[in-house]
Amino acid sequence: MLLKMTVLFILFFVPSMFFGCAPKVVTTELDQLFEKDFEGFEVPEISKIKEWGGSKDYPYVTFDDVWESTIIVLMQQGTIVRSSKNTGVIVTITTPPLAVFVEGGEVIKVYLHWMENLYKRLDKPEMVTVKFEAAAMEKRNKTFFDKLSTQLYSNEKWKWLKFEGKEGKK
Amino acid sequence: MKIPKKTFYLIILFLPIWVSCAPNIPKSEYPVEIEKVFNASFDKTWNAVSEVVKISKGVIITSDKSSGLVTYAVPDKESESKIYMNVYLKSNPNANTTTVFLFSKTRTGPYLKEIERDFFEKLKTILGG
Question: Which of A60, A73, A78, B53 is a Cys-bridge partner for A159, taking CB atoms 3.0 to 4.6 Å apart?
Answer without folding.
Answer: A60
